[in-house]
Write a structure and sequence with these properties.
The chain has 364 residues and is α+β, with helices and mostly antiparallel strands. It contains 13 helices and 14 strands.
Length: 364
């Protein structure tokens, strides 16, 4: 139909316009937005409108592509770090010049603050900005936002860089910093400060973080980066992150950990605690595979003894490829006494305690 054709044409247009290859991913967020909404919804509604108008009016100028918005946060993509940093610096400079609602300027999160020389340092909404440059895993066309979306670890890293920033602060990754460090005069000689190397939440490899501000806002001060650590995460901390580690990822994690240029390799006789945790998880994965193999062997043995598999594997029943837990599927000829008499009635989990692999794990 005409609607579908129009939708398809728009999709092709967006796919053509979106940055490709290595991309600079930028995330923004309003500090204390929930607090401000509860305090004065009307003032926040007006402020958000000003905020959105400023953002959308600057995308084309700096060759930015708005990927999506979530509440009051933006995800914007640029073809290179220089354009991304230029846009972020411009935003921070322009935010203090906006005609904010008078009520907002009375709140501690929006009031005007001046520096030692009388220049305005803070005024209105305080926006934190974080960015990282890298390759994406894949792109997809979002029907809800009608834009191209990016997926992959580098996108997640950019979002984590944004999370450690405070309102009014721009934080960039080491990759972005390396690209722009020799071009600072073309960016207006911004004030830069290396904050250090941090482990971002849910990520294994650490990241160098650099703060960058417009020259006129260089006197702004901030607390230490938030929601990050200077020490490596444990497996438990990684597993509790929004995106859990899965067994197939462990080998990649181990390889990435050993090859990370930002880590000091521990002595051979004293392996890293995190590496020990990874190796332990690998041993557990091997044992689980061994148990699954034993289950398959037990099922074959039961069939050879004419003992229905359903009487043994009471946790599930496969029928036509579907899982069925209903006891109605149990053959009437099967009895509990038959199960008890069966030489293979012991569960695989119980037998695996004496397996060689289990002994290896318990001995470590």
């Amino acid at each position: 139909s005409g609607i579908n054709a129009e939708y398809g044409n728009h999709r092709v247009f967006e796919m053509t316009k979106a940055p490709k290859g290595e991309v600079t991913f930028v995330f923004t967020d309003i500090q204390s937005s929930s607090l401000l909404w509860d305090w004065n919804p009307e003032a926040m509604r007006m402020a958000l409108k000003i905020h959105n108008n400023l953002f959308t009016s600057t995308f084309a100028r700096f060759h930015g592509y708005c990927v999506r918005t979530e509440g009051d946060s933006y995800f914007v993509a640029f073809q290179n770090p220089f354009d991304g940093v230029s846009w972020a610096l411009h935003l921070q400079s322009e935010l203090i010049k906006q005609d904010w609602p008078s009520d907002l300027l009375t709140h501690k999160e929006g009031k005007e603050v001046r520096g030692e020389k009388g220049q305005v340092l803070w005024r209105g909404l305080r926006i934190r900005i974080g960015m990282h440059h890298g390759s994406y895993y894949e792109t997809q066309f979002s029907a809800s936002s009608i834009h191209v979306d990016y997926l992959g670890p580098q996108v997640n890293r950019a979002a984590r860089v944004n999370q450690i920033a405070h309102g009014g602060q721009i934080c960039i990754s080491g990759r972005v910093w390396n690209d722009i460090v020799d071009r600072l005069p073309k960016l207006g000689d911004p004030v830069c400060k290396e904050l250090g190397i941090y482990y971002l939440r849910g990520l294994l490899e650490p990241e160098k973080i650099v703060q960058i501000l417009p020259k006129e806002l260089g006197e702004r001060t901030f607390p230490p980066p938030r929601d990050c650590s200077t020490t490596p995460p444990t497996i438990e901390e990684l597993s509790s992150s929004p995106k859990r580690l899965t067994p197939p990822m462990l080998g990649t994690i181990k390889q990435g950990f050993l090859s990370s240029p930002l880590l000091i390799t521990p002595p051979k006789d004293k392996p890293s605690p995190l590496l020990q945790e990874v190796e332990k998880e690998e041993k557990i994965e091997i044992i689980e595979k061994e148990r699954e193999r034993e289950k398959i062997q037990d099922n074959k043995m039961q069939k050879s003894h004419s003992v229905p598999a359903l009487s043994y594997t009471s946790s599930y029943t496969k029928s036509n490829g579907n899982i069925n837990n209903s006891p109605d599927f149990l053959p009437h000829s099967t009895s509990i006494s038959n199960q008890a008499a069966s030489p293979t009635s012991q569960s695989p989990a119980d037998r695996s305690v004496t397996s060689p692999l289990k002994k290896v794990l318990l001995s470590t």
